[in-house]
Write a structure and sequence with these properties.
12 helices; TIM Barrel; flavoprotein; alpha/beta; monooxygenase; about 375 residues; 8-stranded parallel barrel
Length: about 375
């Protein structure tokens, strides 16, 4: 079981839908999060992409020397980036980080944003362009010289002279819920990421993609993208969930949902269907809360509960085939510590937030630790 964290390059806050509790996200703050995730035992970190975010490649590269083992899940954008240029970027990053690159394939689901970047393809055309992109990207990183006269991409003699550390290339991650997305995943992807839907819906996706991949003689691993709200008790966790959206009013929800409705993303449509734009029934599955998606696009659900409860929900997903959990929480620095302290002790291979050496807790007189009953 792998657990990733998240770099909030689009901003961070204690609350959603308001400027109250907001904090500046700069390189110093992102370094704090990266070093915390690295030290606490997270396996990797997702860096988001889009016009509301800092550039993920520059951000990730700047954090290589600040970390030792943390892997970086960084986006390539078919249709916006050249596949050979993207391959050279990936190879350089992988070498300079000693093999710590993971690649997130993002076709995009917001036509307004994509048009502002010069991409005017329809939904299914974007996936055909992504297929051509990945044929070139995978081929050149495997050491091949690639010629392709495609519908959207045409290259002749494409190659990469300096290979990546990981062979044949850094692992490819990808998420998408449409028919075209599932076909792309089955053909090219190493790890398919679903957003946090109820287990039954996730099981259907996994079964479908497994079957499509098997028909091609391939196997695919699976992950899930979720927020997490973990506290010492279930009651405290649910209070924290309500506090997160306490400043969100109906007009803010309506405006956000109207914006999301203009997207052609099937995944976004499925996220919106979980709550219907209303806050009265946000627990859409045991301990799966859709409140984040009232005002946030993309991943809109959170696991809510104490450490044992959240771990139990994770095991339910793991039994379906999920082996990678990509988490985030507001604010991201403090919540990284909460997850490590309260959740990791209940997960296989994780040991909580205490370092392997050094004192635990406050050191008091004569270097003795306080007893549990001491005040």
């Amino acid at each position: 079981m792998q657990v990733f964290w998240f770099f909030p390059t689009h901003g961070d806050s204690r609350y959603l839908g308001t400027q109250q509790g907001a904090r500046q996200v700069n390189h110093a703050y992102l370094t704090q999060i990266a070093q915390a995730a690295d030290r606490l035992g997270f396996d990797g970190a997702l860096i988001p992409t889009g016009r509301s975010c800092e550039d993920p490649w520059i951000t990730a590269a700047s954090l290589i020397p600040a970390t030792q083992r943390l892997k970086f899940l960084v986006a390539v954008r078919p249709g916006i980036m050249s596949p050979t240029v993207a391959a050279r970027m990936a190879a350089s990053f992988d070498r300079h980080s000693a093999g710590r690159l993971l690649v997130n394939v993002v076709t995009g689901g917001d036509p307004v944003e994509l048009e502002s970047d010069g991409l005017w393809l329809s939904h299914d055309e974007r996936y055909r362009a992504s297929d051509e992109f990945l044929k070139v990207w995978r081929g050149v990183l495997a050491g091949d010289t690639v010629d392709l006269d495609g519908e959207h991409i045409k290259v002749k003699g494409a190659k990469v002279l300096f290979p990546p550390v990981q062979t044949p290339h850094p692992p490819l991650y990808f998420g998408g819920s449409s028919e075209a997305a599932h076909e792309l995943a089955a053909e090219h992807i190493d790890v398919y990421l679903t957003w946090g839907e109820p287990p039954a819906a996730v099981a259907e996706k996994i079964a479908d993609i497994r079957a499509r991949a098997a028909a091609r003689g391939r196997t695919v691993r699976f992950g899930i993208r979720l927020h997490v709200i973990v506290r010492e008790t279930n009651e405290a966790a649910w209070r924290a969930a309500e506090e997160l959206i306490q400043y969100v009013d109906d007009s803010t929800i309506a405006a956000a949902q109207a914006t999301f409705a203009k997207m052609d993303s099937e995944g976004q449509r499925r996220m919106a269907a979980l709550h219907g734009g209303k806050r009265d029934k946000l627990e859409v599955s045991p301990n799966l809360w859709a409140g984040v998606g009232l005002v946030r696009g993309g991943a809109g659900t959170a696991l809510v509960g104490d450490g044992p409860t959240v771990a139990a929900r994770m095991r339910e997903y793991a039994e379906l085939g999920i082996d990678t959990f990509v988490f985030s929480g507001y604010p991201h620095l403090e919540e990284a510590y909460r997850v490590a302290e309260l959740l990791f002790p209940h997960l296989p291979g994780k040991h909580g937030s205490a370092p392997a050496n050094g004192p635990l807790g406050e050191v008091v007189a004569n270097h003795h630790l306080p007893k549990a009953s001491a005040s």
